[in-house]
Amino acid sequence: MADLAVYAGLFAVAFVAATILPAQSEAALVALLVADAQPAALLVLAASAGNTLGAVVNWALGRGVERFSGRRWFPVEPRHLDQATGWYRRWGRWSLLFSWAPVVGDALTVAAGVLREPFWSFLLLVAIAKTGRYLVLAAATLGFV
Predict the structure, then answer these.
(1) How far apart are CA 78 and CA 140, in angstroms?
(2) Alpha-carbon distance 37 to 60, whole Å?
(3) How far is CA 69 from the centre of its chain?
(4) pLDDT (tens digit, 9 = 90+) per residue, 95-134?
(5) Rounded Cα gap, residues 71 and 89, in angstroms
(6) Rounded to the nearest 5°, which phi and psi values hold at 22?
(7) What is the pTM of this model?
(8) Got the DSSP string for 85-140?
(9) Which of 12, 17, 43 minimizes the C-alpha distance to 105?
């Protein structure tokens, strides 16, 4: 049962990190990897799933941006959203491969919703980006890089 709590906690931190509250999912993952109490693959899976689903929340907020923008809890500042929308218009859905990046990554996922990116292509590209980031982080932490 304690193992489930670890994975659920990491999932929750990663989810929150991708949405409206500041959180450090990378620090949580590294701490758990260093503790070496759970399999690295399952930790990466939990973090990736949580962070990807958090990005889905941003995509949904982008779909309703007219109702939500300007509210204090909205996860993206207007200038970051404008910048991300510009990149998204220029590079298209492939810009979602940078959804792992700090600040701009969240804005890109909201911009994808604003610009009506189809859900399944959004989900695939964001999952690749988010999982890739955690795989690199895990490899570096465990000395594979």
Answers:
(1) 34
(2) 35
(3) 20
(4) 999 999 987 888 899 889 988 999 999 999 999 999 999 9
(5) 24
(6) -70, 130
(7) 0.88
(8) HHHHHHHGGGGGGGTTSTTHHHHHHHHHHHTT--HHHHHHHHHHHHHHHHHHHHHH
(9) 17
